[in-house]
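From the methods appendix. Each design record in this collection lists the tokenized structure first, followed by the designed amino acid sequence. Records were kept in a plain field format so they could be parsed without special tools. The example shown here is representative of the layout used throughout.

RECORD:
FOLD TOKENS (226 positions):
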């Protein structure tokens, strides 16, 4: 049984019993025993473990985990301290600097955001080493669609930040008018200049939270987390 340690256990209880999820589980047992899979099996659900359903204020939706050694640890766009900051996160930091004047951090670990209510969720939660999108079709999209659908039912306003076509495909599940959708091109070097840079997602998210009497995200906490 999956134990997330917070209210997601109740919210997603039925999901972990469904046939598609049991198939994912069986597939991953085989994958982890025969291949190098990221993240560690103990980190697959870190996004949900770090940010409870009721605490979620912002969702940043990624595509799938980083696929090189030492990078993925279960939070979208995040890498642990000591790991080279990936290009997409470099661009996220550039936009933070342009948007709110935040100094560029020296590391890429975003755990401090997750602890403030930023759900750093990938659409696909596992990947084979060196093979981006290799687990895209094993059923994870059904699971993460359900996560978005449950968040859509929340009475508390949530900001959904959707970067790139993969993330924006989940927009159809966000129908609750209480929430805010911020969408743009992906921060990848291939697309960042097509609308990601200058989109100001971080200040816009905080303006929305403040307008709904919710505490803003301290994005600069990454710099404070030495």
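DESIGN:
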């Amino acid at each position: 049984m999956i134990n997330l340690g917070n209210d997601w256990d109740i919210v997603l209880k039925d999901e972990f019993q469904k046939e598609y999820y049991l198939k994912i589980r069986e597939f991953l047992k085989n994958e982890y025993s025969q291949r190098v899979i990221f993240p560690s099996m103990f980190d697959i659900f870190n996004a949900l473990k770090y940010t409870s359903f009721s605490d979620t204020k912002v969702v940043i939706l990624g595509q799938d985990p980083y696929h090189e050694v030492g990078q993925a640890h279960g939070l979208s766009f995040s890498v642990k301290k000591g790991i080279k900051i990936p290009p997409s996160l470099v661009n996220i930091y550039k936009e933070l600097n342009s948007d709110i004047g935040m100094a560029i951090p020296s590391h890429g670990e975003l755990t401090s955001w997750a602890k403030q209510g930023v759900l750093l969720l990938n659409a696909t939660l596992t990947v084979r080493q060196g093979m981006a999108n290799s687990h895209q079709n094993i059923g994870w999209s059904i699971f993460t669609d359900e996560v978005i659908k449950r968040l859509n039912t929340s009475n508390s306003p949530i900001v959904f930040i959707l970067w790139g076509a993969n993330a924006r495909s989940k927009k159809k599940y966000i129908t609750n008018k209480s929430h805010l959708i911020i969408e743009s091109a992906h921060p990848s070097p291939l697309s960042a200049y097509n609308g990601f840079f200058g989109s100001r997602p971080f200040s816009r998210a905080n303006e929305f939270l403040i307008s709904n009497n919710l505490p803003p995200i301290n994005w600069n906490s990454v710099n404070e987390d030495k």
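APPENDIX NOTE: Residues 19-34 form the longest helix (16 residues).
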